[in-house]
Amino acid sequence: MKTEKITFPNGRGEMLAARLELPEDERPLAYALFAHCFTCSKNLTAAVHISRALSSRRIAVLRFDFTGLGESEGEFAATTFSSEVSDLVAAARFLEQEYQAPQLLIGHSLGGAAVLAAAAKIPSTLAVVTIAAPFHPAQLRGLLGETSARVEQDGQATVQIGGRAFTIRKSLLDDLAAQQPAGTLARLTAALLVMHSPRDRMVGIDNAAGIYQAAHHPKSFISLDPADHLLSDSRDSHYAGEMIAAWAGRYLAPPDTSPPSPVPPEVIDNRVTARTGAGAFRTEIFANGFPLVADEPVEYGGNNEGPSPYEYLLAALGACTGMTLRMYAQRKGWPLAETVVRLSHRKVHAEDCRDCDDKESRIDLFVRELELFGELDEAQRRRLLEIAGQCPVHRTLEGEARIETTLRQP
């Protein structure tokens, strides 16, 4: 995906650091805001994976560091739950001024409670998603353990979270306690998706039940089992992102009772784009406005999250074969009802390559099996077998090809 590094001011003039995840070479269908968990940052792995899963579905996502966290300015100790809500409103205002007003709000953990509270202050909101969110923000008090008592007694205290020291003031606890989540949810007019794992040991799944029951329809629930609170396993955050994108599509599109438009999505750059990030081999692909994922099997160092490059090559040959036979049969008026193409690929010794200098060389062998359905006679079946060899991808693979590669500066 394409990531832009940006900053914007909060309500107090402090600059907040953000990343805007954009669809690769395409115009976004909608914009979303992502609110991270308490003391986390915009760079939390789960936040990155969810944002990129959404951008692969043409939903741009702004994820930012709340005041005093990550790369953002300001003093974290002076922040409250209400100030986080204010930061979200400032982020929405920035998107509206510079890009497009956000229609989707997503919040993880305490960020989930924050987007519920912010929704009423962001008029463009059409859908809200909470991930492992507490029903009442004041539940954070219990998670702070004995630190809460020290804060009440001394006015502030330092707590270690994730190996880092954070100063918590009484103003934060008082503000959390003052929230009225039941009333907030009762007034929520946007569609709601509640996501939670029954194995969450930090914020129990009973919180999801509280949020769901207090909200009006339209509302949905998706279990994130077996994920932990932070969605530490990348498969869980990828899954969450894909589910959010699928769910949100129902609510982000404007209501329209007319038949689907045949006009394709607006594409800025009509080349196929493949982006491989750090880590394993997972590759995000954009082709004619459609998002795809490629990967390698686990035995080759991948995570098996998508077809391998050679499997995509086989898929291209299979699809081209089926389309070619369909076009030929339609032109002839033949009763071809359906075509099934099964393919495999392997390297074989080039024993028939008499002119090869390297007698140990190997060539690619593609094995293709056709299954033709319909009231076809034997002559028609034999002719369709011949026509399969005229498939453009088939001819490309058997012909001579040149690949020109240039280097583009980031």
Task: Write structural notes for this entry.
The protein has helices spanning 45-55, 81-98, 110-118, 139-143, 147-154, 170-178, 181-186, 206-214, 234-252, 309-332, 378-388, 392-398; strands at 2-9, 15-22, 30-35, 59-64, 104-108, 127-131, 156-161, 164-169, 191-196, 219-223, 273-276, 283-287, 290-294, 338-349, 362-373. By secondary structure, the chain is α/β, with parallel strands linked by helices. It folds into three domains: 2-137 and 179-252, Rossmann fold; 140-174, no CATH class; 309-398, K homology (KH) domain (GMP Synthetase, Chain A, domain 3), CATH 3.30.300. The strands form four sheets. An eight-stranded mixed beta sheet has the order 1-2-4-3-5-6-9-10, with helices on both faces. A three-stranded antiparallel beta sheet has the order 11-12-13, with no helix packed on it. It is elongated. The two termini are 13 Å apart.
